[in-house]
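hey so i finally got around to running both of the ones u sent me last week. sorry it took forever, my laptop kept dying halfway thru and i had to restart like 3 times lol. anyway pasting them below in the order u listed, first the sequence line then the structure token line for each. didnt double check formatting much so if smth looks off just lmk and ill redo it

first one:
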Amino acid sequence: MWDLIKCIAGVMNNCSGIVALFDPIAAQSWLNISTAIFNYLVCFSSYVTSVMAAYVAVERCLCVTVPLKVKWLLTPKVTLLACLVISVVVFGAFAAMFALYDLVRAWDATLNASIVIYKKSQFYIENDGPLFAYYNISGILWPLASFVVILIATIIIIVKLREGSKFRLGQSSTAASQPEAGSSSQGKRKDQQQRQQNVMKRDRQVVKMLLVIIIIYIASLAPRIAHYMVKYFVYDYYFLRRSHYLFEFTTSILMIADSTNGAVNFFVFYKMSSSFRVTLSTMFSRSKTSRPTQA
């Protein structure tokens, strides 16, 4: 859901170019509104999705390490509650940043018209120092902590899957070395070996998918972590400060990376996860069958 919100907010943030084809004045107003609202929505949605990714990684790790206990430990209600708590806590940690700017109408001499602009709010002026220190540190710690959790969980999953593959390979070798007792036992042995090979192939596919996801995660969030570190140490690197245009440029690049990440995840899971494809096709088939037929 948060990937979808991120993509929609990214599209809304870049609608000013399309609006400019019909109304340049409205386009400039939309650009200023987007900077104060949709820019932050894309950013904060990225943090929620990063923590969600960490939670999913922990779930997968538990499925591999304690498969017999995971069914009663991670019920659908527990998963739903965890997702709601993550959404409220992470998004709520940054919600105060939406109060940084006031949207007001002002006269623009270049356009010779009244447009909507954003200016520093009273909340911004009164809490400039501690608010931005908290904001920048949170912007570094949330994705960094999520990355560490994902990395540790991925390593554990890969190690456990390889241990299981080695164990099954050893069983297959032992069965192959036993003398043949008949055609029926030989057929059963071949079927067992084929099933073990299919399981090992699936394990390799899971490892490959996890590595692709973690590489995408690093590529999308590492620049944003660096971006926030620069903000923390360089005060003028922000909107309506000395480096306003440089900050605006880098923010636009990061927004493209965030929106791309939100869209790419769907195709990665669709391409590499057979269970995801089955679930998706089941959902669409149910929606088609539930539609009333017209006479």
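and the second one:
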Amino acid sequence: MDAARDFRIAIADDHPVIRHAVINALSSMPGYIVDGAARSGNELLQVLSEGNWDLIITDLTMGTARSDIDGLALIARLRKRHPDIPVVVFTMLANDDVLIRVSRSGVAGIVDKREGVDEFRIAAHEVMQHRRPYFSANIRARLHRRPEGNDKASGKPVLTKKEMDVIRLFAAGASLTEIARQVNRSISTVATQKSTAMKKLELATNADLVKYSQLNGLI
């Protein structure tokens, strides 16, 4: 990559205040231009189809329309369509299992939104100038605390990846039919995985499932 030219950045977040704060922080750095801004995963994919990009910075959980792409699915699609463009994720995700999955998905970095806009400048500098992955202090502490990515030692229920996918999509508003189509499973299989996950989590109602997902940063 030509170090003499500006790095072109695309950003996605559904909250205008956060989106503008990140854009302003990065635009203040010499050699960095934020040329694309999106409010959803689908918008981000459209932005990326227009021109060449050097860095993608995206929120993981954007509370947009039901038809929008899921956060982890978005990362997977970005890595498949744009394997040479580093992706930095920023999030307030509370669920460590999902956080670990994100860290292992091929992203170049993860930043906790609560740590301030300076973290975005540091992340962009480390990733683009030094070609090093960057994880903010809060994220590093959580990943270090959970190196194996499970809760067995603490006695907390451990959901499978497929169960996690189902409850996250259901809590985000998708029906079992829509989930089955999106994850390419039968409706009965999806219903069983949802039921199993709720039993593991000791959740009695769909409202409990939605509340759990909100509290744990799944939606």
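quick thing i noticed on the 2nd:
The two ends are 36 Å apart (CA to CA).
anyway thats it, ttyl
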